[in-house]
Amino acid sequence: MILTFQADQLKPIATLHRRLKLLTKSVEYLQHVRLTLLPGQTEATIESTDLDIHITSRIPVGAATPGTFTLPRKEFFEVIRTADKGTEIRLESSGQQTNPAAPTTIAIASRSKKLATSLTLLGLDPTEFPISLHTAADWVGSRHILPSDTIRAIHTILPSASADETRYVLNGVFCDPAGAVIATDGRRLAHSAARVTTPPIILPSKLVSLFADKSIDSAAVANVHEDKTTIALAFGKTTICSKLITGNFPNYRQVMPKESAFSATITPTSSDSIIPWLRTAGKRAMKNNSVRIEIKDSTLRLSTKEPDHSESAVSIPVHISRRSELPNDFAISFNPTFLADGLALGLTTLDLIDGMSPGVLTNGTTRYVLMPMRVLHEVQEDQPEEEQEEEEPEQEQEQPAPADPNTIEVESTSTIAA
User: What percentage of residues in the chain have a pLDDT greater than 70?
Assistant: First the structure.
């Protein structure tokens, strides 16, 4: 079998295939890609899989003979990545038809530098390569169109999805035919208005992470299997077949406030300036630390406790829109990393009800719900030493250490139940 093609045409495809992270290296076939050219065709297919996701791409070929073989994906994609512009890739199987696992020679000829290099790689039996569920004979599904802006919205809210494998149903993005895509980890929730024509499905995070690739820049033809366990997404000459998350997504509408008491609008310049401060606070602060937000007049003050129990604070101007009277001592606390993630989405209006209800960052089409955190200041009153000795029991027992006056305990007031 012989295949020749331009490296420039394969580079965008190779980048997408390289994004497929393999969770296990115990299955040797997952470390390979399969290339196939059918008789009478001018385009060859290249396939890679991790058993949960199967990517198939078509590439135009020049001089070629029909056949199929496999190549180690890491070495093959590295050859493509480092190839110069205008390089022609020639793949030639040196094995006999009775020995499909014979070594495959990759000959690389550079037109610009007039150089020729060769690399010999050992392939595996292509007939043992896992097939895509989408190509199975019993595939029966319904076809839908996912617009490009819906694809972007799905990928944008992905950071809000849970990474906790014990909460499997939250490990992805929920597509609601009512016109929204939603992701949550139980402590925050991202909701974006979008056109959804598919049935209610949950796209796994691993699949959505592939949408970051530059080759995914168009609308997708979505083919959902009739049992709603598998989906095939066609982007031009690439088809991604993936398992779906099965289960019931939580009723996200229950935690989305219907109205707010007042709104604080942050200027984009102020938002950009406090995002690094929030991320730094989230990294160096105490475990489960929160950022405290206080609003007075037209100033929003953010403060957080440092590991040495000192306070770090920053103040920014905001525009307040009142729907009810703003308390003089209003304060609410959020996770600093989650708040930074919401501001990074370009959401600059913070809708609030009170210090114990969820806050919502919004820009009109996207809503980012943040569950508040309750901060308990445990202050131990000073007592005379004599009184402390009298209160001690006669039998010696191990007593808990007295609370540090500056210590705070942070716990979530509520979560989004799965």
Answer: 79
Tell me the residue ranges of DSSP E strands in 335-414: 349-352, 359-362, 366-370, 373-377, 408-412
Given a contact cutoff of 8 angstroms between Cβ atoms, the answer to whether 150 and 196 are in contact is yes
Q: Which of 340, 341, 362 is nearest to 350 (CA)?
A: 362
User: Quick one: pLDDT band at residue 46, thresholds 50, 70, 90?
Assistant: very high
What pLDDT score was predicted for residue 383? 42
Tokens of 401: 């250490």
Q: Do strands 366-370 and 373-377 pair parallel, antiparallel, or not at all (unpaired)? A: unpaired
The predicted-structure confidence for 51-60, as pLDDT tens digits, reads as follows 899 999 999 9
Distances (CA, A) of 407 to 308, 376, 379: 10, 9, 8
Residue 404, CA atoms < 13 Å, CB-side half-sphere: 6
CA distance 274 to 302: 9
Contact by Cβ (8 Å): 106, 118: yes
- Considering the entire predicted model, what is its pTM? 0.82
Residue 9 has pLDDT above 70, yes or no: yes
Q: C-alpha distances in angstroms, 383 versus 388, 391, 396, 397?
A: 7, 11, 20, 20
